[in-house]
Sequence to fold (606 residues):
Amino acid sequence: MLLFVARRLLYLIPVLIAVSLLTFFIASLLPGDLAYTILGDQATPENVAALRKDMGLDQPVWVRYFGWLGNILQGDFGRSFRTGQTVLQAVAERLPVSFELMILAEVIGLVIGVPLAIVCAARSGSAFDRFMTGSAFAMLSVPAFLSAILLIYLFAVELRWLPATGYVPFAEDPAANLRFMVLPALTLALAEWPGIMRVLRSDMIATLQEDYIALAKAKGLTPARILFVHALKPSSLTLVTITGINIGRLIGGAVIVEQIFALPGIGRLLVGAIYTRDLIILQGVVLLVAAGFVIMNFIVDLLYAVLDPRIRHGHA
Amino acid sequence: MATLEITIDEGVAAAPARRGRRLGLLFWMAIGWMTFMLAVAVFAPVLPLPSPTDMDMLERRAPFSAEHWLGTDGLGRDELSRLIYGARISLVVGLCAPIIGLTIGGALGMLAGYFRGRLASVVVGSMDVLLAFPPLILAMAVTAYLGQSIFNLTLILGFLGVPAFMRVARAATLTLAGREFVIAAQALGATHARILLRELLPNVALPLLAFFLLAVAVTIVVEGALSFLGLGVPPPISSWGSMIGEGRESLDVAPRLAFLPAAAMFLTVLAFNLVGDTLRALTDPRQGAL
Fold:
């Protein structure tokens, strides 16, 4: 197991270096000079030259890359030239919002998807199963921003039950915080449950044909116990895989959902940085998100290996 | 809650095989909708439509009428015309971007699957780096730097699709490379190029095509999301995503302005998903399609 972790960790290093290279070079090699962007209307040739020298933009790109990487390794991601806030401050402020949103969404997605998958697997081929499988397939064609519009229309415009936009920190007022979080989390969850349900359903159908399920039935165990204890447990591997695959889509979805519902999360920071051409923030956030994504996938890989010993030994 | 029935077994075994053979009504309805959207998009300039960008401030958010079949939007532009011109954007980006992914990813995947060894590890490794970025975030960041245009958008979304196409092509090639007909060709002294193009490509093409259709659906969604956020195609070009974004502002007075493009996008994405998924099930080697 230790060897497996070490191997995966070693693999992580080149990927992270490549990620930093890609992030930096997308930002530096493409047209548009940072100095012009910062100075805006006050850009005179002298001003630009002075600022370029000041920021080290006159140096070759490799020198700048290693300087940038060196700063990052020391925990300095730079600061926004618009707000003066450092990238780390800005991210730390907004991370809890995005995390709360994604965790709530995944929980709601599991709460909808897992029971449906179990019922559909137990009665596969029935009218209910066909209806739910069809609905899940249709839901896969509904992007987050479409369900967001529908939910806002239904719950905020027509019924007026929930607010369409806004945010209150959880620590300040938990009830109000949850009221603001319901619609965004539900929006994301609506995109999550079909994937969870489809994969878990087919996995459970296969599990239900195993001999030990027949044995459990012969022993007279209740159907509920067979389904939830004997059949669901081996399928936990599938759930971990799906969660891993979902992370990327969840991050992308969270960006859009935060923008629609005006939640002050990482996604909003990113989109705001794009709108205002705040390239330092943009670069820092993209790097942090990509690094976080790589590390989360690494953790999922490890979990997977813990759950299924065959993977550690390279048989799978 | 549920009683375990023995019928489970036959249900699983029979359903996919049967569905694989007969394509069904839904499949043809999806094909029909795809053809209809393509035709409307291609012939938009010759159709008797008002301009999608002409504003009429006296006719803002007008209801359905003989003059404006689907009414007008918040700036008095004809909604039907904008929907149809929006279809052009969604379909141009939606079809062109996956072609980039298909060409590059397909070629890389076949090479990696056929030659294996060091080439394969380099290809797979570099694709892992591209996959390290959440796709939407990378697309947003690159459009922010490159500037918003249909060409840039297509290019970025195309490159984002390369790793997925590479995986599909590599997986298909790997299973085929050990088959008798490839070994026979090798024994006859066929060149690598000939084996790749004449023996493997025809067999890899179908799974790639099925995946291509699914990629079209995903691309339409991502283009829509970017345009919805105002980071996709620049105004005043209409795109379904930007129309939904604009319609959002008037959900309380004219919800149709958001729902019409939303419905168009949903049906189109669903159609591509349905056809792609049916073809995928048909070509899935696990079900013994060959």
Summary: The two ends of chain A are 15 Å apart (CA to CA). The first helix of chain A runs from residue 2 to 29.
